[in-house]
Amino acid sequence: MTSVWTQTAELPRFPALKGDLKTEVLIIGGGAAGLLCAYFLEQEGVDYALVEADRICGGITKNTTAKVTAQHGDKYRQLLASLGAETAGQYAAAQRQAVEDYEALIRRAGIRCGWERRSSWLTAGEEAAIRFCAERYEHFLLVINGGSALDMSGICSIPGVNAILYLCQLGQEGGHAFADVLSGAVSPSGKLTDTWARRYADLPFSQEYSYLNGDLQNEFYKEGIYVGYRFFDSFGVEPAYPFGFGLSYTDFAIRCAGVSAPDGGM
Ligand SMILES: Cc1cc2nc3c(=O)[nH]c(=O)nc-3n(C[C@H](O)[C@H](O)[C@H](O)COP(=O)(O)OP(=O)(O)OC[C@H]3O[C@@H](n4cnc5c(N)ncnc54)[C@H](O)[C@@H]3O)c2cc1C
After folding, report:
1. Which residue's alpha carbon is nearest to atom 48 within ligand 1?
2. Which of 34, 77, 201, 212 has the highest local Cβ count within 10 Å?
3. Sign of the dihedral through C-alpha 57, 60, 65, 70
């Protein structure tokens, strides 16, 4: 596998160890984990030696995308189910701290690695893949296999996205349902059960939600009764897709065919 690292960085070489070595701490492996251990031991003035069988950062580390994030949805789910909310919360706190520590380390050591704080939208690669297909295929359908509302601002502006099919929490029959919709055996008839904002920032208190307020165990809906569509309706905020939105292969109209009151009363 090639990566930006392997193409642009010269991995350092060191002479082989000759003879015995006495040390307080021996770190085996000069990947990201070993180097971080070495760095922090160095900061504490602890005597250590790091041995590497091949090249420094020549193992898995040379392939990393280097995304540093606390968003480990599956891991949180596993921990919640197996060890409970307190442990999951401790894990989340450790992950958030790691992001801070990375940033501090990069600034302190003046490492030029293009460190940037970014919101978690589509990755550049994912967006590029959508653009690639949208440009080349006349009939391009974007399928989102997701679990809740998304910020679609980056996606909606891509020319050539003819349609978006949202598969929401379908489970093991999802593939069959998708095939039925795609082949026209059934008409897509699902309607949104919530309101999707144009941009995440349009949601009230979006900057304080979930991990942003540091509390993964409690969520307080500070918007009070203006939760969901009530906020958009009451404050005139245009959503991307309103509550109940959903297109189909055809149009439907509902009209009253007539009203009658038997025996002149109800
Ligand atoms: C494609 C890809 C993308 C990734 N993207 C991300 C990402 O975006 N964010 C993220 O956080 N993680 C990412 N990861 C995971 C991350 O890269 C790894 O978790 C991390 O690099 C592992 O570091 P390490 O030091 O544990 O292992 P390694 O980098 O494999 O280092 C282990 C080192 O130990 C040496 N060694 C083994 N045995 C001995 C021995 N007996 N004596 C001496 N030396 C020995 C090896 O030669 C090797 O250099 C990605 C991984 C891959 C493959």
Report:
1. 59
2. 34
3. negative
Question: pLDDT tens digit string along 73-132?
Answer: 778 888 988 999 889 889 988 998 999 899 999 999 898 888 887 766 676 778 888 999
Helix or strand holding residue 51 (H, E) = strand 48-51
Q: What is the DSSP string of 7-42?
A: HH------PPP-S----SEEEE--SHHHHHHHHHHH
81 to 73, 78, 84: CA distances (angstroms)? 12, 5, 6
Which one of 25, 46, 64 terminates a domain? 64
Give the domain range for residue 221: 193-244
d(CA 31, CA 61): 6
202 occurs within a structural domain:
yes
- Burial of 134 (C-beta count, 10 Å sphere; 0-12/13-18/19+): middle
Into how many domains does the chain fold?
Answer: 4
* pTM beyond cutoff 0.70: no
Q: Greatest CA separation found in the chain?
A: 108
Could you tell me the distance, in angstroms and rounded to a whole number, from the CA of residue 59 to the centre of ligand 1?
5
Cα radius of gyration (the chain) = 27
The verdict on the CB of residue 3 being under 6 Å from ligand 1 is: no
